[in-house]
């Protein structure tokens, strides 16, 4: 405990988290002309009691104060929760910001250089993204998007999945799934191969893997998704891009016109044509329903995921995906009683 260091005790003595007794003690110590070397010595001073003396001894012996560590840990937890309100900021980024002295959204607004594009937009729209989308607005978004996609190319197929498809009265975001017959998992039209679990393999990965690739550098999937995003941006419906890859767009939208004023989160996923129904099933959720259905699939000797339904051989190795012509067929393969999306809110 160093009585002549003025900065630490003064921040201490002004911090509202500490009692007036503690603040008084900090002031006494900071004004003491000599270095304090024990709790016993400090106790001789006015305003220092047994408890403070014990804290001084704890600090001198261990270099820490358990109580202070606890307060700091809970401050970090509060700041992490606050910063995590921003789309694109997770625990690691929050930690990095806190270590850099940023703990609130207000402080974050003053440090734009610390944020990437996604996080910058996440901060700009933080309260708008936190407000839920009423079902009737989600329905208007669905009509708009399905109309615009069909207008672009009638061969696209599109479904709004997520909580909206499960009939929710309000949703956190809009989850749009699209496919196109020119885009399949065997890569026939894409010039490259995809494995059954959807991972891309072979040449072209690095070139087309760049999320910003435009035009000729794009894969077939990237072009099909990019065309949709561009068309949805043309009339101002898509207002911003948080991130965009060959098969996944994360962005921001708002319906044209004066009725809807709030910016909404929009996810668009392009999936191979032959994987569409398994993807619709997966992205309709709920997470818990998906878990239960996957567990049931395993009991029936199948592995089910967003890419397909595959029988497991006796050795447990997954075979070729079975052809799936509808969501209902997945239930039938698994002898699982069909549940419409409204009954998947587990
Ligand atoms: N999903 C999943 N497991 C995850 C994340 C997602 O199974 N870890 C699936 C089920 C979800 C769907 O993707 O229903 C869409 O994800 P969202 O996070 O958009 O969740 P919801 O649409 O269900 O809810 P919200 O209204 O909050 O968007
Ligand atoms: Mg959703
Ligand atoms: Mn989503």
Structure description:
A hairpin with a 3-residue loop joins strand 5 (238-244) and strand 6. The longest helix has 18 residues, at 66-83. Mean pLDDT is 89; it is low at 1-10, 188-196 and 198-215. The protein has 346 residues and is of the alpha+beta class. The chain folds into four domains: 21-64, DNA polymerase beta, N-terminal domain-like (DNA polymerase, domain 1, Orthogonal Bundle); 78-130, Orthogonal Bundle (DNA polymerase, domain 1), CATH 1.10.150; 133-188 and 220-275, Beta Polymerase, domain 2; 285-343, Beta Polymerase, domain 3, CATH 3.30.210. The chain has 16 helices and nine strands. The two termini are 56 Å apart. The protein has a five-stranded mixed beta sheet with strand order 2-4-7-6-5, with helices on both faces. Helix content is 45%, strand content 12%. The protein has helices at 7-14, 20-31, 39-43, 50-62, 66-83, 91-99, 105-109, 117-124, 126-130, 135-152, 162-165, 205-209, 220-234, 276-284, 287-299, 327-333; strands at residues 133-134, 157-160, 170-171, 174-179, 238-244, 248-253, 264-270, 302-305, 308-311. The structure holds 2'-deoxycytidine-5'-triphosphate, magnesium ion and manganese (II) ion (MN).
């Amino acid at each position: 405990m160093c009585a002549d260091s003025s900065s630490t005790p003064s921040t201490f003595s002004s911090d509202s988290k500490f009692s007036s007794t503690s603040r008084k003690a900090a002031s006494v110590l900071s004004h003491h002309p000599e270095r304090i070397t024990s709790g016993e010595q400090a106790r001789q001073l006015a305003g220092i009691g047994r408890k403070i003396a014990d804290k001084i001894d704890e600090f001198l012996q261990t270099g820490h104060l358990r109580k202070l560590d606890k307060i700091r840990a809970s401050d970090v937890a509060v700041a992490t929760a606050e910063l995590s309100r921003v789309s694109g900021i997770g625990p690691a980024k929050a930690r990095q910001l806190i270590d850099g002295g940023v703990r609130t959204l207000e402080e974050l607004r003053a440090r734009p250089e610390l944020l990437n594009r996604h996080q910058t937009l996440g901060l700009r729209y933080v309260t708008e993204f936190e407000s839920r989308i009423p079902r009737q607005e989600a329905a208007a978004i669905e009509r708009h998007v399905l109309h615009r996609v069909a207008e672009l190319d009638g061969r696209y197929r599109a479904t709004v999945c997520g909580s909206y498809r499960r009939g929710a009265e309000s949703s956190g975001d809009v989850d749009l799934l699209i496919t196109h017959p020119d885009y399949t998992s065997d890569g026939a039209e894409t010039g490259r191969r995809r494995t059954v679990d959807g991972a891309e393999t072979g040449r072209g990965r690095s070139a087309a893997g760049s999320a910003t690739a435009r035009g000729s550098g794009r894969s077939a999937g990237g072009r099909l998704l990019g065309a949709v995003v561009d068309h949805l941006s043309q009339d101002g419906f898509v207002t911003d891009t948080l991130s965009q890859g060959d098969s996944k767009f994360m962005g921001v939208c708002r319906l044209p016109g004066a009725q809807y004023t709030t910016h909404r989160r929009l996810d668009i996923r392009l999936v191979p044509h032959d994987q569409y129904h398994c993807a619709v099933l997966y992205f309709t959720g709920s997470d818990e329903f998906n878990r239960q259905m996957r567990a049931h699939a395993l009991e029936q000797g199948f592995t089910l995921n967003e890419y397909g339904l595959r029988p497991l051989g006796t050795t447990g190795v997954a075979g070729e995906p079975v052809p799936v012509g509808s969501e209902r067929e997945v239930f039938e393969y698994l002898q699982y009683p069909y549940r419409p999306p409204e009954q998947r809110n587990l």
